[in-house]
Amino acid sequence: MPLKIALAGNPNAGKTTLFNQLTGARQQVGNYPGITVDHKEGFTLHNGERITIVDLPGTYSMTAYSAEELVARDYLVNEKPDVIIDIVDSSNLERNLYLTCQFFELGVPLVIALNMIDVAKDRGIEIKIKKLEQLLDVPIIPIIARSGFGKEDLLETAVRTASKNKRWSSRDISYGKDLDMTLTELVSEISEANFMTDVYPSRYTAIKYLENDEQILEKGRQNNGEVAEKLENIVSKTTDHTQKTLDVYPEAIIADQRYGYIKSIIRQGIEIRTFDMDRLYASDKIDKVLTNRLIGPAVMFLILFSLYQFTFSWSEMPVALLESFFGWLGGVIENTLPDGLIKSMIISGIIDGVGGILGFVPLIMFMFFGIAILEDSGYLARVAFMMDRVFRFFGLHGSSVMPFIVSGGIAGGCAVPGVMATRTLRSPKERMATLLTVPFMNCGAKLPVLALLIGAFFAESKALYMFLFTLLAWVVALLAAKFLRVTILRGAPTPFVMELPPYRFPTIRGLLIHTWERTYQYIKKAGTVILGISILLWALMTFPGLDDQRIASFEQQRQETLSSFSPEAVADLQIGRENFSEETKALAGKIRNINNEETETALRNSIAGRVGGAMESLTGLAGFDWRTNIALIGGFAAKEVIVSTLGTAYSMGEVDAEESTSLGERLKNDSNWNRVVAVSALVFIMFYAPCFITVVCIARESSWKWAFFSMGFNTVFAFFAAVAVYQIGMFFQLG
Ligand code: GDP
Ligand code: MG
Q: What is the pLDDT of residue 498?
C-alpha cells in the first residue's frame, strides 16, 4: 500500500498550489462520490517510493455546516490517510490555527506546512517556528507553495510522521470546568460501550455530541440507540445548565475555548511584527503636526518652497558649466566645419536645439531628487491628503491629487502618465475634469522654458518666481476644473478615503535610482523625439532660403562696405584681428550687420518664418513676434521644443554676435522681449494645447471629442490670458 497524505487547510491557504507542486502533472480531478465537491488525487515519488496525495476541500472548521466540511471530515475518518499536512497561511496564523485545533481533537497524525512565509515577511510578520512547534507539539515546516520552497523538507517530515504515529489519539484541550466534567462522563460511557470507536476516537465523539453535531448524532442513533440516548441525556442536562448560567450553548463555549487556546499560544511571542508599533506611533505624532489643519499647509508650502530653493541654488553651477560646454562645442564646429547646410544644421539644429535641452539636465536632476525625497519619505501622500480638502471644493476628488502631482504639480512630471493615472478615479465626471486639467501642470518639458525665461528676466529671485508659476498652474487648473464641474461635467462629488503609510527614512540608493529613472527619461527624449523635431524645425526655418538675386544684393553691399575702408583694415579683418584698430572695429560691425540682416531675411522667408509672420498680427496682441510663434507651434509637438526652437531662431537671426553668449542673454537683449513678454509667453506656454502625445493619450483614455476639446479650450484660454497679461503689463509699463 502506498503511503497516503491528505492536504487540508483553510480556503486559499495554498492547498491546490502545493498539490500541484508535489504532484506535477500526475493527477486526476473528479468529484467525491455522490457529492459535487472537487476531488483531486495525485502521486509523487519520494526516495523512489510512490506516495498518494489527496487535495481535500478547503474548510475553516470541521463541523457539519457545509458539504465541504463533511467531505473533508468523512474522508479523514473513513480513509484514514497516513498523515495529514495542514496548510496554514502564515500571514493569517490565528484564524488558520482554528482548524488545526480541530485536527488535534480528531487526533490525526499531523504536520503543519507554514505556507506563504514570503507574504508574511512582506507584511512584516516573523513567526518563531521552533517555539510554535514546541507549544503545539507538531512538526512545522515553513514553505512557499508557489515557488516550491521547502517542499522536500515537508515530504520528508510527513513520511517520518506517518511511520511514527500509527494510532490516532486526540489531544485534550480544556473547554472549561462544566464541559470538561461532562466530557469525562461522556468519554467513559463511549469507551465502555465501544461506541463507534472503530471510526472515531471517544473524545472526538464526545465533543461532537456536545456540539450537537447532526451527522454524528444520527450515526450514533443508528449504531446503538441505547447508548446514544444515554449520551444525549447527559448532553441535554449540560446544555440546560450552560443555558441557565451563561445563556449559551455548549458549542459556543467550545468555539470560544478553541480560540482561547490558540490565542494563549500566539501571545507567547510567536509572531514578531517587524513593522514596529513605535514607528507607526511616531508617524501618528508627526502627522498631528504635518497634517494639522492650520500648521500642515503652512509647513507644506515651506517644504515645497525649500525644494525650489534647493533645486535652483544647487543646480546653478552645473547648468552654467553645461551651457558653456555647448557654447564651446558650437565654437569648435564653427571653426572646423566649412560653411554650408551641414554646419548650419549641426549648430542651429542639433547643438542649439538638443544642447539647449540637455543644458537643463542638472536642474531637472536636482528637482527630481528633491521630489524623490518627498515621495520616498511618505510626505507626498500627506500632501495629497491635505490637498484633498481643497480639491473637494473645486469638484475634484482626493484621488485627483496624484494625477496632478504626476503631471508636474510640484514640478517636472509628465501629463501622459498623469492622464493615465486618472484611471483610479471611479466617478466618470470627476475623472474627466481631472483628465482635462492635469495638462495645466508644469511638466518636465515646460521646466526648461520656465527656467530659461525666469533665469533671463527674473534672475534676482528665481526660486520665488518658479514657486509662483507653480501656484499659478494650480490655481488655473482648479478654477478650470470648477468651471467644468458646474457646466458640462455637472454632478455630485463621491466620498474619499486615503491611506497614509508610516513615514520612513529614504535610502540613498532608492533616491538615486528614482532620480536617475526620471532624468534618464528626459535625456532619452532629448536624444530621440526632440532631436528629430529639432532637425525638422531647423529645416522649416532654413528652406527655401534666399533667391540668388537677394544673395547677390547682400554680397554687393558687403563689397561696397569693404571698398569704402582702407586696405589695412580689410586685411586685419581677413586675418581675424577685429579689434586691432578703431577702423577695423567699425568695419567688422558693419559687415556683421549685413550678415545678420541676411540671415534674418532668410529666416523670415523660410516656411516657418512665413507661418510665424502670418500669425504676428494676432499674436502681437500678446507680445509674441514671429520667432516666438515658430517656437510655440513647434511646442505642440513637444514642449521641450520651445526652448530648442527659440535657440535655433535666435541663433539664426543674431542681433549682435559679440553678446551672444546664451539664449537667455540673447532674449534679454532682444528688443522684442522684456519682462511682460516673458510672463505673457510663460502663461501661454503653461496653458495652451497639451503636447501632441498627451492629446493622443487623452483621446485614448476618453474620446477624440474630448481630445479636440482640450486642444481648443486650452489654446483659446491661454491666448486670452496671455493677451490680458501683455496688455495690462504694457499699460502699466511693467516691462
Ligand atoms: P487553496 O484554496 O488552498 O487551494 O489555495 P490556492 O492553492 O488556490 O492558493 C490561493 C492563492 O494563494 C493563489 O493565488 C496562489 O498563487 C497563492 N499562493 C499559494 N501559496 C503561496 C505562497 O507560498 N506564496 C505566495 N505569495 N502566494 C501563494
Ligand atoms: Mg484549491
A: 60
> Which of 12, 38, 55 maximizes ligand 1 atoms within 8 Å of its Cβ, making it the mutation to test the pocket?
12
Domain count, the chain: 4
Query: Across residues 538-563, what is the average pLDDT?
Result: 85
Signed CA dihedral, 699, 705, 708, 710: sign only:
negative
Q: 670-695 burial string, b = 16+ CB within 10 Å, else e?
A: beebbebbbbbbbbbbbbbbbbebbb
Q: pLDDT of 239-249, one tens digit each?
A: 999 988 888 88
Shared domain for 57 and 90, answered yes or no, is yes
pLDDT at 599 over 80: no
Domain shared by 109 and 241, yes or no: no
Instruction: Considering every ligand atom shown, identify the ligand nearest to the alpha carbon of residue 13 and give its number.
Output: 1
Predicted pLDDT at 560: 87
Protein residue whose Cα sits closest to atom 12 of ligand 1: 14
Report residue 684 as a C-alpha cell: 501661454
Per-residue pLDDT tens over the stretch 470-488:
999 999 999 999 999 999 9
Q: Say yes or no: 603 and 645 in one domain.
A: yes
Mean pLDDT computed over 54-76? 84
Domain around 262: 177-273
Q: Whose CA is nearest to atom 22 of ligand 1?
A: 116
User: 56 alpha carbon to ligand 2 midpoint, in Å?
Assistant: 8
Average pLDDT of span 675-682: 94
Instruction: Please identify which residue in the block is written with the cell numbers 496688455.
Output: 727
Identify the residues whose C-beta falls under 6 Å from ligand 1: 9, 11-17, 58, 115-116, 118-119, 144-146
Measure 150 CA to ligand 1 centroid, in angstroms: 15
pLDDT band at 660 (very low <50, low <70, confident <90, very high): very low
- Candidates 359, 641, 364; CA nearest to 528 is 641
Point out the ligand 1 atom lying closest to the alpha carbon of residue 20: 7
421 and 403 Cβ atoms separated by less than 8 Å: yes
Return residues with CB closer than 5 A to ligand 2 (ion): 16
